[in-house]
Amino acid sequence: AQSVTQLGSHVSVSEGALVLLRCNYSSSVPPYLFWYVQYPNQGLQLLLKYTSAATLVKGINGFEAEFKKSETSFHLTKPSAHMSDAAEYFCAVSETGANNLFFGTGTRLTVIP
Amino acid sequence: GAVVSQHPSWVICKSGTSVKIECRSLDFQATTMFWYRQFPKQSLMLMATSNEGSKATYEQGVEKDKFLINHASLTLSTLTVTSAHPEDSSFYICSAAEDPGQPQHFGDGTRLSIL
Questions:
Q1: Concatenated DSSP letters for chain B?
Q2: In chain B, N or C terminus with fewer CB closer than 10 Å?
Q3: Which of A65, A67, A96 is nearest to A78 (CA)?
Q4: Four-residue CA torsion sign, B101, A57, A111, A24
Q5: Radius of gyration of chain B (CA)
Q6: Closest Cα to residue A89, out of A11, A24, A14?
Q7: DSSP 3-state helix, strand, coil percentages of chain A (rounded to 5)?
Q8: Is pLDDT above 80 for B20?
């Protein structure tokens, strides 16, 4: 069975500070992992995905995530937060590719000016 | 590229009516489309997966007679909430993928409010 745990439903950072959003997964097979961002009243936009290639994945808008098998983690980071990064972020796992996505409960990122 | 359009973005209707939500892939052909439901401040819950030309596969606990899904073409899937009631009020999001296993591209969602 696959599942995703996002620690911290709400994270606040100052503008220019490091962003760290945590995601731990559970999967019975090598997983496919995704980070999505959702702005208010909108759908989800893919930030980045891990598909068993490089463990450090670079995405859009300056975000990146590192796959750590030993820790079953796929934390999302960005060196310097921007006001426009304020949104809801979802981590998702799939055992079969991009189908059958299981989403975490989300982390709301607030950026303080 | 890979734009998914969902319509309407917001709908308010009376209890007992049926509501149809459209999901279109604008610049690609989607063999697979997904329908999600999202409650306030919660994650997305997959309702059903539809493949073009075949019946949708519903997740456990989702009433197929309540939520009718049609995927008649490679660019269009529709979700019809039949005889909607206030408890059906939610944010419904569709996504589409060119092929199984390819990344899903999401629409902007439809906020459904049943009075």
A1: ---EEEE-SEEEE-TT--EEEEEEESSS--SEEEEEEE-TTS-EEEEEEEETTSPPEEPTT--TTTEEEEEEETTEEEEEETT--GGG-EEEEEEEESSTTSPPEE---EEEEE-
A2: N
A3: A65
A4: positive
A5: 13
A6: A11
A7: 10, 50, 40
A8: yes
Give the CA radius of gyration of chain A: 13
**Selected residue of A2, A48, A49, A99 to mutate for chain B interface (largest B Cβ count, 10 A):** A99
CA distance B32 to B97: 5
**CA dist B77 → A34, B24, B83, B92 (Å):** 24, 7, 19, 13
Q: Mark yes or no for CB contact A98/B49 under 8 Å.
A: no
Q: For residues A20 and B52, give the distance between their C-alpha atoms in angstroms, rounded to a whole number.
A: 39
Residue that the structure tokens 């009433």 belong to: B63
* Terminal alpha carbon distance of chain A: 41
Q: Which two tokens stand for residue A22?
A: 């945590």
Chain A's closest residue to B43, CA to CA, is A105
- Residue B95, chain A, CB below 8 Å: the answer is yes
**Residues of chain A whose pLDDT is less than 50?**
none
